[in-house]
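P.,

For your records, the input lines for the assembly:
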Amino acid sequence: MLRMASSFPEEVLEHVFSFIYDDKDRNAISMVCKSWYEIERWCRRRIFVGNCYAVSPPMVIRRFPEVRSVELKGKPHFADFNLVPEGWGGYVYPWIAAMATAYPWLEEIRLKRMVVTDEALELIAKSFKNFKVLVLSSCEGFSTDGLAAIAANCRNLKELDLRESEVDDLSGHWLSHFPDSYTSLVSLNISCLGSEVSFSALERLVGRCPNLRTLRLNRAVPLDRLANILCRAPQLVELGTGTYSAELQPDVFSSLAGAFSGCKELRSLSGFWDAVPGYLPAIYPICPSLTSLNLSYATIQSTDLTKLVSQCQSLQRLWVLDYIEDIGLEALAAFCKDLRELRVFPSEPFAQEPNVSLTEQGLVSVSEGCPKLHSVLYFCRQMTNDALATIARNRPNMTRFRLCIIEPRAPDYITLQPLDDGFGAIVEHCKDLQRLSMAGLLTDRVFEHIGNHAKKLEMLSVAFAGDSDLGLHHVLSGCENLRKLEIRDCPFGDKALLVNAAKLETMRSLWMSSCSVSFGACKLLGQKIPRLNVEVMDERGPPGSRPESCPVEKLYIYRTVAGPRFDMPGFVWTMDEDSALRLS
Amino acid sequence: MEGGLGLLGVSGGGCSGASTNESTVSKVEVVVDAEASSYPIEAELELGLGLSIGGGSVGKGKSSVWGECGRILTAKDFPSLVSQPHRGHNNNNNNNNNSNATASACVAVSGTKRAAEPVSHEGESPTSISKLLCGSSQVVGWPPIRAYRINSLVNQAKASRSEEDKSFGEKDKSNDASKKICNGNKTNATGNEKGHLGFVKVNMDGVPIGRKVDLNAHTSYETLAQTLEEMFFRSTPPVSSMGGEKQQSANLSNLLDGLSEFVLTYEDKEGDWMLVGDVPWGMFLSSVKRLRIMRTSEANGLGPRFQDRNGIQISKPV
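Structure tokens returned:
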């Protein structure tokens, strides 16, 4: 065996490995034998850390000394919905500081749900001479000053994408820090910023960057400036407009329509804040070639929406508000046969009564008419088991299915039964289902279905569901590929967790909030399984000040080789061997 | 096995107290073995193996626990959230308030809580904004929509509310309408420098952990102050009953009347710190960047003290 492994010179193996990009494949290669492990680690250029606390920067650097691209994720997904208090963690600075010395040739940093400070951005700007890509997805903690540092210093920057981050928006002046000599911009996404950037600086920037293909503007860019920007970048492939609203004026309209027509490569549109129907026809000429359309900020009604989508025969992805209604979704099903992904967001998420005629029928129509549909996020107010079963039978190729019924615990509105069988049909028919979020009235039975059938399921989100620990046990014992499980407001307690404790080490993370897991069980888990961090979040004070049987507010368990973290705020405690000593 | 609600709120016998260390350890070891073998799942939950961490037994659930550590009500306590008037409430009630609490406060344990149900306050039109913001579910993080989406919708609602005879979502949009919307949103776009007016940070002197509060969930200073009081002064839980008038115990500070140890202040667009309550609510909303609960002793020089006005009372909306 040793002979065979060393029969190829290192350089040859390294060359072969350079064609392998996927992390899983790379990991597999590294486990073949020691020499392959060594060769592979020296030539791995890209690393992905799905939980920044699963490993420490020195560990990563020690193993992979020549990395060019890093992707890190921080807070748990439920942080998106305000369930993770401020100060929880996810700080990127320690990573940047370590990489500044170890990876001087780092080119790409992609972060999700992490706390990024201006100091971190300044350090990035100073440390990496060939820095090219910065993607900050749902991050926070930095201001436009940090962006100014990036703009001013990163000569080779190609991509700056701030999607959905929370930026302390001091002014729009940062954009002017791109020097006049800077021309390498390929992708810019500032849609989350509130303040105005200088329009002339923006136009000049766009005009001097010939490779610009993605431009997502923010709401503060008015409609009458859009034509000028487009004319300077006819090669654009992806555009996010600013406010899509203005007084209807023929000259504004015609220059806008002309500008859009000039963008022959345009395939993706977004933005459309406050969209006014009168200006929609300006994009009709490019609709037939659009593959992606995000209208989820556009408060246009179903008639106009229907007219619009009916012209988008190449559409693969549609994000839209529920103003589209069932009737618009029927049109979608009829005209957009290449549709792969649909997201329907609620226009009035907190209203008691429905404000639009969007029901389960809309989703059924799309599932019938669009054979390639595999990714769905759908907010609605009513659902039936029959509809879910129909969708499941229509679309066995479904891979991501997220349903949210506005009212928690809503039953099948016709039979008044739980929706167990409907979701059961989904997991039974859709054998490649990777991600599932459930809604409505659900008993332990749905979890039994999931445990029995959802063998490829990797991520499951559960809220206000189940009757007992049996539900959780079904999932933990049955779903072989489960990586992320997030649960809120379910009557799950200690038993299922403790019985399936070993399973937790095979997953990235488990979140449970407003459930019935006791402090004692958390301690037990933390003590018995050293490679899990069992973190208890409780804003009532130290869990040790209450009886062991008392349930914790929130629980976040994740596997790690880095041991407990030390950057926790006062309301987070790690349960480990020492916790018995540290917690009074 | 009893259903979910059966696990809660049943006043049970005394907690058996922590089991001894040895027995706990041995139970775990048994568990690990069982987990390795194929485990038969029966209709009745047999997972128990007597795993009782600190008391309670299979089937009875944690009922006995509640009395000891205080009862934290969550949305699961309430069979239906539909059309239950919100009587915004407090956690840490003891198990007197168990499942008969059909008066709903859906207080999620994390602490950030929405305000009371919509009532027309101080000239704010109840139609669009309250319809948009307030509904049956007062649970944190539900429905699961990102804050920037919610804020974006609300900003659009604010714009259209200026049209008296057009309700939000109306299909007919004339030139006038689009003009109004455009103007309304220009204000919002520039007045809203963070791009998400709704959630603003709140810090309190002496408390290291900042919070965030959704300003769009409130239509008046009173509800905002109530929410903040509950967020930050929970360490002295009042003995309040569910529903009815919200009691303000002597321990709770009243942030608006200028009589307590703390005052509520905000930083406006220009970076100045102002006392909350001086300007009309709408004007406040368009200029506030963040909030701070400041010690009264440090609040001198912030501007005229907030005068007690009629109609500013901490009372429950009808």
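Two observations worth noting. Chain A touches chain B through 100 residues (CB under 8 Å). The longest helix of chain A spans residues 250-262.

Regards
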